[in-house]
Description:
By secondary structure, the chain is an alpha+beta fold. Helix content is 32%, strand content 18%.
Amino acid sequence: xxxxxxxxxxxxxxxxxxxxxxxxxxxxxxxxxxxxxxxxxxxxxxxxxxxxxxxxxxxxxxxxxxxxxxxxxxxxxxxxxxxxxxxxxxxxxxxxxxxxxxxxxxxxxxxxxxxxxxxxxxxxxxxxxxxxxxxxxxxxxxxxxxxxxxxxxxxxxxxxxxxxxxxxxxxxxxxxxxxxxxxxxxxxxxxxxxxxxxxxxxxxxxxxxxxxxxxxxxxxxxxxxxxxxxxxxxxxxxxxxxxxxxxxxxxxxxxxxxxxxxxxxxxxxxxxxxxxxxxxxxxxxxxxxxxxxxxxxxxxxxxxxxxxxxxxxxxxxxxxxxxxxxxxxxxxxxxxxxxxxxxxxxxxxxxxxxxxxxxxxxxxxxxxxxxxxxxxxxxxxxxxxxxxxxxxxxxxxxxxxxxxxxxxxxxxxxxxxxxxxxxxxxxxxxxxxxxxxxxxxxxxxxxxxxxxxxxxxxxxxxxxxxxxxxxxxxxxxxxxxxxxxxxxxxxxxxxxxxxxxxxxxxxxxxxxxxxxxxxxxxxxxxxxxxxxxxxxxxxxxxxxxxxxxxxxx
Length: 553
């Protein structure tokens, strides 16, 4: 009754009283068992036989009625014994088990008056409310503070205690993308997005000629340049191979001096031109990447990307411009790096193995190894999948080609990277994710191949690193698919030539020796000095950013 109807009793018994009551009930039941057995076997509780009543005691003169009456009385006695055996089993172990279960249930019922009352503790609580004597678990490094510091944020699955927690609501700061900001008052030139294209600049693929090549490698001794280049042969692979994904890119330093040295260590254009023995008679000597950055600005693609990725009021250096001593040529070197928009952003905090996470890494080194015939250099994922190894198996030196062409009345010497050759034709290798294949447009492919004089572009289409298709793209294939693309590209080449002519004229009129920079800011490109900012300029920039934030709000 205490277990089934605890509210019917006027008081709550203690655990000791309940246990004592259970013991008394057990002894009473055990005492009843011999009496029940005696009724079944017609014996006393002490074991001797009871006197039997027989119909023969009446003598031979007893009639049949007495016999039948005695038989009926005996059957009734047997039915009573059977009923008693059904109510109380003759097995003592079963009775003890039933009574023990009832006693345990009653004890738990009586202990519910308090959370940890009685001799049975209902749950293990670690340092709950810092109560003395209730500490169940003591860690090896000592007691932990109460309450514990926050170590989990909603939405960050797979958290590990050996790595720093990351709040998904706290966005990391943007990477530094300018050495110093150019203000409107200090700008030498200002360019805006063209509303229409007036004068086209014709450029045919046959007019882009190769004039030299070189190999550039960096080791412990510094920069090493040798000429000519010796790219490996291109071997078109089959589909089904899996490529290793590299680790995510790193950001440039934040300090002024280290940020400037970061780009100085990566420049090798002037040294490679001198090593190959080319003249400086051209109007513009540039990397192909610097021309492609300006083309992306003209098409509006760059501005859209930067407005999505950058905070209001932020700027980005695009191209560094410097003079060649004793010549009228201008050196164009690309400063814009698209990887800085996503480098060291919100890291992956999912359930997958951290050793296999790349955080925006690419597959270019593994694809270059596979496309040059190396299918033996492999590594394995944590799941056992076989991969074509990337940088872990070594970094090959970079191969460059120099091409010359004329665009809008200006002569260009352009350096472009090459990865392989096929029967004397230059081959450039690239990878594209099948899920984002729309980012590789015909206009981007055409301008990249035309400005660099690339004969074949070997594109690997992959799905999460597995090669599903290999495309060998040529300029003829692009124009055959979309013939009007040539005219559209020439109109944009005309605006590019117009921008470079204005930059060249502004630098010639300037009395400074440079260098200068083309900087993007709010859909505009400004030409100004490339120099380390002063404290006054930094304070003025902070005030301008605050005003921009108020206007956007």
